[in-house]
Each structure stands twice: as C-alpha cells, then as structure tokens.
Amino acid sequence: MLELIDIAKTYRGGKRAVDGITLRLAPGMVGLLGPNGAGKSSLMRIAATITRPTSGRVLWHGTDAVARPDPLRAALGYLPQDFGVYPNLSAPEFLRYLAAAKGLSARTARARTDELLHLVNLTEAGKRPLKAYSGGMLRRVGIAQALLADPEVIVVDEPTAGLDPEERVRFRNLLSDLAADKIVLLSTHIVSDVESVARDIAVVAGGRLLYRGTPEELLRRTTGLVWELLVRPEDLVAVRARHAVSRMVRTPEGVRARVLAGEPPVPDAVAAEPDLEDAYLATVGGAARQVAA
Amino acid sequence: MMPATATRPTPATALRPILGVALADVRDRVRQPAYAVILLAAVALGWLAVPAAGSHWVILQIGDHRGAYNSAYVGLATALAGSLWLALGGFYVVRGVPARDEASGVGRLLAATPLRTTAYFAGKFLSNVLVLASMLVVLAATALTMQLVRGEDRAVDLGALLLPFAVIALPLMVATAAAALLTDTLPGLRGGLGNVVWFFVWMVLAVGGQGPGAPLGGIGVYGAVRSMHAQVREQAPDARGEFSLGFTYTETPLHTFTWSGFTPDAGYLLSRAAVAGLALVVALLPALWFARFDPARGRIAAASHRTPVATVAPATWAAPIPARPLTAARTGGWPFFRLYAAELRILLQGTRWWWWAMAALLTLTAFAATGNGATRIILPAAWIWPVLLWSRLGTQAPEGGVDALLGAIPRPARRALAEWAAGVTLTAVTGLGPGAVLIREGDTDGLASWTAAVLFVPALALALGTVSRSHRLFQATYLPLWYAAANGMTFLDYMGATRAPGQPATVPPTLLALLAGLLLAGVLTRGAGGRFGWSRRWR
Fold it and tell me: What is the Cα Rg of chain A in Å?
C-alpha cells in the first residue's frame, strides 16, 4: 500500500501548493481530479519521489519513502506531464537506457522494450531517432517507459495530453487493465478521462482534498443541484453572475443552459440528472465559494 | 466589421516593440539567481583590478610602474579589466537568447504577432547590451569604492573615472552583445562550437586590439596607453618595460606614477561610435536568415523537447494491436555496465565522422612524435578537441527534459557514476596517443599526470554541468584553464603538458586525482540528495 499522510508542500515564496492531503492507495485506480493549479502535479511529484514534501509522510508498504525512496522507486512507473528525450537515440535505445537505470537484466530489458513498443504501436518507427517523432508518439514512448519495470505503482500526470481521441480511449483502457492488480494514480483535469475508468475519485482544489469516494456517491451529493433552463441571450450575464453554468448551447429560441444551484434559478427551470462533470464543478465551485466567503 | 483605424507610424510606435522585447528579456534575466552571481563577479573583478599597495599581482602595468590610485587610473584599470574579462565571460552570460525563446515557447507566440524580425533582434540586442552594461555600472561603482578604500588619492573626479567605461568598455560590450546574437543564429555556431570559437576570437581581440594599427581603434586602449607611457617617462625617465594588461605576478610591488587621464579626440570618439554602429548592423544581420521559430525551417535549440516535428509516419495507436504477453520484469545482471554503455552512447550521440577523423589524426600524430612533442603539442590539442562533448556531462538530461523521467528511478548515484565513467572513457580515448607514447618511453611521472587528468576533466565537467544544468559553465571554465596550461602557466598545468620528460608534474597527480574525487563525491552526494532522491533539481 502507498500512503500519503497529511502531505503539505510550500514552495519558496510561500505558495502552499498542497495543504494537508491524505491518500491511502491500494491496488486499483484512483482518478485525481482538480482544476489547473489545484496542487495535483505537486502531489503527483511527491508520490513519484521527485519532490520532497514540506511536511507529512509517504509510506510504501510501511517504509518511510521520504527517508528511503529507492524501494518505492523500484516499484514505480512514472509518466510526468512534461518530459523530454535524448533526440538522437531511437526509442529502443532510449528505453533500454532507462531499463538499465532501473536495474533490469539485459534479457528483460530487450524483451520488455520490444513488447512495450509493440503495445504502443511504435515497433515500425522504433528504428528512427526520437527527434523525428510527433508529440503523440513521444507520449507513447513515455507510456512505454513507465511500464518498463512492471511497476506495482503507476503515477500518470495528465497522460492524455497530446493523444488523439482514439489514442486516449486506448490508453484509458490500458490503464484500466493495469489497475486490476496495480496501484494507478491518474491525475487529470479532464473529467471524461476519469469517468470511464476510475471507480475511486479524489477531487482536489486549492491544495486540499475535497472529496474521496466513488463517482456514484459524488453524483448522489449533487442530486437536486442541476437545472436546465432556456434564457434570453441578454439575461445570460445575470444568470452567470448568480450561478455556476456547467454548459450552454445557443439555439434559435435562446440559450439552453445547465446551471448548478440549490434551488430553481428561474421558475421554469427543469431539474436535471447530474453527470460527473456537474458533480465535479459543484464540488470545486463549492470550495471556491467557501474560500471567497 | 469596423474598419481598422489607420495609424501613421512614428518613431515612437517603431521603438515600442523593440523596447517591449528588450524590457521583458532584461526583466526575465535579472530575476534569475544567476544574475546576482554575475554582479558579484563584477564586484570581485573590480576588487582585483585595484590591488593593495604591497600586492604581488597586478592587472595593468607599464613595466615596473603602475598608476597611483586616482580616479582616472582606477577608472581605466577597472574599465580595462572589465573590457577584457566581460568580453569573454559576458559573452557566455548573454548567449542563447533565441534558443531560450524557442525552448520556452515564447518564440512561437512572438512569431505569430506582427513583430518584425528586425525589431525582435534589435530588442534582443538591446537586452544583451543592457545586461552587460549593468555589469559595467557595478564595476564603476566598485571602482569608486576601491579608490576610496585604497586611499592613495581620495579626490574623486567622476568624469575621469567614468570616461574609460563610456569610451572603452561600453563599445566593447556592445560588440560582445552583437557577437553573441550573431553566433546564436549561425548554423554550426549556435551550439557549443560558438563558445569555443569566441574564446579564440576574444584572444585575438584582446591581444591584437591593443595595438595602434588595430581596425577601428581595436579595443580603444591605445590612446590611454600612449598617454601613460608619456607620463611615466616624464616622472621616471629610467623606467623600462611595456604596457601589460592581464592578471600578472610581480616579484616586487610596483613603483607608482601619477596619471592624469586622457582626453579623447574627435577621431577617437568617432572610431568608438563606429564600433557600436557596426555592432548594431551585425546584431540585425540574422534577420536575413532567421526562420522566425518555424520548426519546419530549422531549429535553434537542438535539444528542445517542446516542439516535436514528426518526420516519420505517425503510426496511430488506435488500430487494434494483437495482444502479446509481457515478459516478467527481472532485475540483476550487470546493469552498471549497460548503464555505462548507454551513457557513453548518449554522451557521443550525434557526433559526426569528421570529429572522429580529427581525433584519430591527433592520436596517430602523437605516435609519430617524441615524448616531449606528444605531451607539449599533441596532448593540449587532443584535450581541447572533446570540449563540447565533455560539456554535455551533467547537462543533457536537464537540458533535454529527460530529468523528469530520471528523477523517479532508483540509485541516481549509480547513474552519475556511469556518466562520469563515460566521460573518463572519452578523455582516455582522445588522449590515447600521448598516453601510449608516455608508456612507450617509460615516463611514469607523465603517465601519472595523464591518468589524473583523465579522471579530473570529466569530474570537473560533470560537477559544473550538474550545478549549472547548462553546458556553458564548463566551457567558460575549461577554455581559460586549458589555455593557461597549454601556454606554460605551470601552476595550472593539469595535463602535465609543460613538464620536461621524466620530471614530475607541477600539479601533483595525487592532488588532481583527489580533486577529481571530491568533485565526483559532490555530484554523487547531490544525487543522493538525502538518501538518494528528493533533491528538487537533481537530474
């Protein structure tokens, strides 16, 4: 089990990116959702042993991973949001280098490199230097390297950036398969990425953990808070000033808006079934309103 | 749609984008911690230029005389020291502006605006000039302080003190700013080769630019030198010796004379203005070939990972792929040796055939040379040749963004050790010829010196690269060190190039090996960063 206990991270200059978050992670996937600047990437870097927390503990099978990160690192596959490659190396050369750095045996390194390149469909392109790859192809190399050492823990930060829609689906399915017997911590601000694969969701904003539980429970909390209404374009500004609008479509009859509110925002508003995006916005918006208050 | 209001271009509207580019660039640079270090270095330079009365070292002398520390002399000595060293160090400081814009992505934002390419370069040139000029301002303030601290003449004449900064140092900084921008955009020179080439250009300028016949007055010092010579002869008719500029050891403290300064004539001022004008032209020249951050027309930052441009068929990942079971991951074997082999491949990646041909030629030439020739001539040549490859040590992962992946991998110290071992291999291979000659001639002292250098140079490169996360610090450090060693400064001769065959080296090999060990230990400890890892910026 990987435990992040009461983690806080304050950067130079006083910015508190993570503010007392506790996450206990067992095999399965946890989808970490939050707006940009919520502290997700800081938390992911802390889980991946890149960043040292200002306070709190990281325990890997009960061992203090802040003092001794190597046991966790040996079990870790990490795909950061932004990474580079050595441009003149081919994908197999680059992966074998990382396999050697991870301490894999030569035979394992060769076999898994070939298999993982096949898995991400880069076998054919594998002979070319990485500088010739597109952004999406490089991201697939990143995915392959994260799986090199058959990790017990997979930490992926905004993994679908740069992938086309079909590739995103494929990657989400791959993560879902991996989560059968591994800890997968998936960070994103794209709700649909989490919705389709994670049975366990953590919502963070302002460095704090706002919710941890199933999508169904998050939806249940939002029941009765979502309304659909048709407003005149000139009234839209007033509606947005009073309520969070999760989406809107301009039609010839007016603007069809989906609004988050505790009671009907206008008399003819119709109650709607919340989806995960509504639930996420209601959770994050509620926290923002509390901060503002 | 409303028609756009036509505005008549005025000098102010033409200047605004240039000033905008310059101001943003200057703000970005001066807010980096390295800038404070640079200013501190300028203060140290100012202190060095005005040594205490009993000192055995000097920056500026006329034979066995130096000027008494009045405003004119302190201003000249400090401005000349600044001209000499900031033209070298300052070049390395202001280099890499377009590459930084490309790596950060700002370049592509600017490229999509109406900003003219000439305005972009004018702004960047102005920014370079302002950064270098800020060092001169600090130097001038240090000069004033040093005059008062030394106390030989406390009468302050600000005009005389500042004149050398304005007419000697500033035009040279302007030229340096332009040269940096030019090399940043010239294919072949935009990388580390530009740094090496500038070192030799700077040497030619520093020596040739002092003479009376130098084009455009050279570095502009000759008028002042002539005036000093005249005044020394007046005050000490028996004085002998020539003008010397540079860090020099003196057996006995120098005699003093009073130098009242010099008054530049119109021709001199015109030549200084011509240097600055020519520099402006040179700075704007790249607009003729600059690709405006279009990756399809060539890239400035070779290692940039932010702007991938696919040149292979973008095999989609969407098509169904037959499932294959994955091999179980097993650790073990000899990962260090595979890591070492991979680090060696990474260190040498992209090295062209002609580089290897030259290295081979140097090796073969060494075999044909006598012991003295092999170490005195071939060894320095062999150990300047890999300077660009050495400077990759400790820098490739952060510069290429690979550190984001490596940071989560266990045993960073093993990786650093493998990287150093790759550097040792490169150093040994390039010095193979002279090393073999030392073995052939049974010169054990020479071989000990050679071995210590093989350990030391990559350790220095790895340490400086790891600390600075940039290849420039090693290049800026190693080139002067190499020059000093190759030119007979025995106390800096890390190669054993100046020693006579059979004689011990002036820098003891054990000391050099110890220094290499300390540097390496520093790198490994940094890699450990508190029981391996967690170091915020560790690769």
Answer: 22
At B364-375, the pLDDT tens digits run 998 888 767 888
Closest by Cα among A19, A26, A30, A28 to A3: A26
Residues of B in contact with A85 (CB under 8 A): 305, 400-402
Instruction: Specify the DSSP class assigned to residue B378.
Output: I
Residues A106/B338, Cβ–Cβ less than 8 Å: yes
How close A67 comes to chain B (CA, Å)? 6
On whether the CB atoms of residues B159 and B261 are closer than 8 A, the answer is no
Q: Which residue would you say has higher pLDDT here, B437 or A167?
A: B437
Q: Find where tokens 């040594």 sit.
A: B51
Residue pLDDT, tens place only, B404-445? 888 888 888 899 999 999 999 999 999 999 999 999 888 888
Q: Does B298 touch chain A (CB under 8 A)?
A: no
SS3 B159: helix
CB contact under 8 Å between A134 and B310, yes or no, is yes
Instruction: Give the tens place of pLDDT for each residue, A2-26.
Output: 999 999 999 888 889 999 999 999 9
Neighbouring-strand partners of residue A19:
A8
- Contact criterion met (CB < 8 Å) for A115 and B326: yes
CATH 3.40.50.300 fits A2-214, yes or no: yes
Please give the backbone phi and psi of residue B494, each rounded to the nearest 5 degrees, phi first.
-70, -20
Q: Which pTM was predicted?
A: 0.72
Q: What is the DSSP letter of A253?
A: T
Picking from A105, A141, A143, A167 by the largest number of B CB atoms within 10 A of its own CB, the best residue to mutate is A105
For chain A, the average pLDDT equals 88
Contact (CB, 8 A) for B71 and B164: no
State whether A80 and B415 contact (CB < 8 Å): no
Domain ranges of chain A: 2-214, 220-292
Rounded to the nearest angstrom, the minimum Cα separation between B97 and chain A is 20
What is the pLDDT averaged over residues B48-71?
A: 86
Nearest C-alpha in A relative to B392: A86
* Interchain CB distance below 8 Å, B312 and A132: yes
- How far is the alpha carbon of A271 from chain B, nearest alpha carbon, in Å? 38
